[in-house]
Write a structure and sequence with these properties.
Elements (H helix, E strand, L loop, with lengths): L1 H6 L1 H6 L4 H12 L5 H5 L5 H26 L6 H9 L1 H31 L5 H8 L2 H19 L7 H28 L20 H8 L21 H30 L10 H12 L5 H21 L1 H14 L14 H15 L1 H4 L3 H33 L12 H22 L12 H24 L16 H5 L13 H15 L1
Amino acid sequence: MNNKKDSSVGAKEVGKISVVTFAIMNIVAVVSLRGLPAEAEYGLSSVFFYVFAAAFFLVPVSLVAAELATGWPEKGGIFRWVGEAFGPKLAFMAMFLLFVQVCVWFPTALTFGAVSLAFIGPDQTFDAALSENKFFVLAIVLAIYWFATFVAFRGVAAFTLLSKWGGIIGTIIPAIILILLGFAFLFSGEKIQIELAWKDLVPDLSNFNNVVLAASIFLFYAGMEMNAIHVKDLDNPTRSYPLAIGMAALGTVVIFVLGTLAIAFVIPSADINLTQSLLVAYFDMFKWAGLGFLGPIMAICLAIGVLAGIVTWVAGPSTGLLEVAKAGYMPRFWQHTNKNGMATHILLVQGIIVSFLAVTFVVLPSVEAAYQILSQLAAVIYLTLYMLMFSAAIYLRFSQPNRPRPYRVPGGKKGLYVFAGVGFTSSAIAFAFSFIPPSQIAVGSPTTFISILVGLSLVFAIIPFLIYAARKPHWRSENSDFAPFTWQVEGVHPGVENHSDRHTESVTEMHREGKGDAQ
């Protein structure tokens, strides 16, 4: 056996991921430029919020997700983790909310795309007015989204190239240009719009309303858990993973901090608009550098980046929900796929939800207000998922203590409790803040704003329980290869301590062999 392993060292090494590569993978998965104006309103104190959120949210999410992903590598992700800890009802709610959260996220990302398209004209004043036109934004949001959906119908191969080059053209290059121009402006001696003093690093936390908008910064770091499953592909993951995460966290914070400050240098806090200010910052800096003609080109690049991200993400949540549906948790209607293997019915339902949410651009007083309420709704849903994830990690250390975990959170059981506890507490605080209208943005009636936010949150939370209660045996597809939960194979309740030291597949195989011997 050892000789066999030795003879395949070359093949094994090919599949390994270096620490630097893994760090870059995580940075690319997390970094987005569209949210920077929201934090630029805080000036230099935005540095405090970025570092705080990284320490108390980003790092706990990354470490805890790695333990869960390697301990339960079977299909399902958060559905698997929550289900192993608390049973299928909460697991299905988690999976459904993940699907909904992405639906809510789409209009906010597409709003940025619509604003980018509005700024490709020669007249910046007209462009700014067009970007605030509700019906223009609504039309662009719906047009791009449904175009992306029909591209997704054609399968993964149809949008792989767009995703790759769109990310480079629409995110990486613009981020580099933003930071270089912003700091060139600073070091040129031009008057900047913020104070650079040590006292300005710490925000005024006594002003409760100031903290509300900053709570959204937690969602800037959402997605770091996506690559946790690859921790097993690292050499010596116990040492390499924390190092890679540290590098990724530092790189992400640096990009966010420098990009945010670049905007704050050139745009006064009072003039910052959540949807326009990134474009305005580019235009102002290009004009300052004598490169004004590049402004519309940058707007096109950012729009391409949005389109690439949307096309890539349109099919993402549908894939996970399709697997869960085939496992018997949703009616056969949701399990339909076309010749390209795409879940067309789920994609259509997803499109209807996105279209419904996009109508908020017409209902609310401004595009900025609609953008903010959808951003806060996405935060509420995503933070709910993170609280479930942290809770599951803590509970599974109790209920399945001997489960093989190729990677464990540093510090043993106490270390897990500290990291997961800090992550849960941070998520809970940000969750509570997400229901409060920010004072910096005109959102109309605060009562209406909160009612819409609470109402939609409750509707999306109740729907999965109704579907689960109505499930039927014939919903399970005969083609489903979705592994059962460990406690299901063992014939026990998820809340009962299970001393099995095998992964689910091994436990399942062991039980099958036992039944065969009995026969």
